Amino acid sequence: MKKYIILAIAALSLGITAAHADNDRAIKTEQLPKAAQEFLQKYFPKQKVALAKEESDFLDKSYEVMFVDGNKVEFTRNGEWKEVSCRFSAVPEGIVPAQIVKYIGENYPGAKVLDIDRDKRDIELKLDNRVELTFDLKYNIIDIDMD
To answer: Which of 89, 19, 15, 5 is nearest to 47 (CA)?
Structure first.
């Protein structure tokens, strides 16, 4: 009988927790973590924000800022950028690590980075020539995909 009670409580707890997952709410840019605010001021000082939102997933929280021109930036819970996506322009200088900029300059001269996405394992970039590059966290190229 105890097993059934414990199982019922666990199922109920999981159901309640799942019901609160995937909650997105609009916020003001002043409500972003300080590191995210500083990043936006440094790299997108003249961009007009269309929407800033806080995304609460099952066990994590993140932030997303979308600009009027279609560009967007995603941040981790502590305000570090995890993705910068520019639709019609290059990712601002200084965001892409210097080692990667050097690799692109040597192998894809004139190409611009339109999207950069980093996580705990790698850094993925999309160039304006439809080439997708993946680097490990030591900036070694590990994959090239040509769309």
So the answer is: 89
Closest alpha carbon to 115 in 130, 98, 99: 130
Integer Cα distance of 133 and 114 in angstroms: 12
Task: Please give the single-letter amino acid code of residue 41.
Answer: Q
Q: Residues of 6-34 as b/e, b for ≥16 C-beta within 10 angstroms?
A: eeeeeeeeeeeeeeeeeeeeeeeeeebbe
Give residue-wise pLDDT tens across range 22-74: 588 999 999 999 999 999 999 999 999 999 999 998 788 999 999 999 999 99
Burial (CB count <10 Å: 0-12, 13-18, 19+), residue 82: middle
Phi, psi of 5 (to 5 degrees): -65, -45
Between CA 53 and CA 61 the distance in angstroms is: 11
Q: Is the backbone of residue 28 left (phi > 0), alpha (psi -120 to 50) or beta?
A: beta
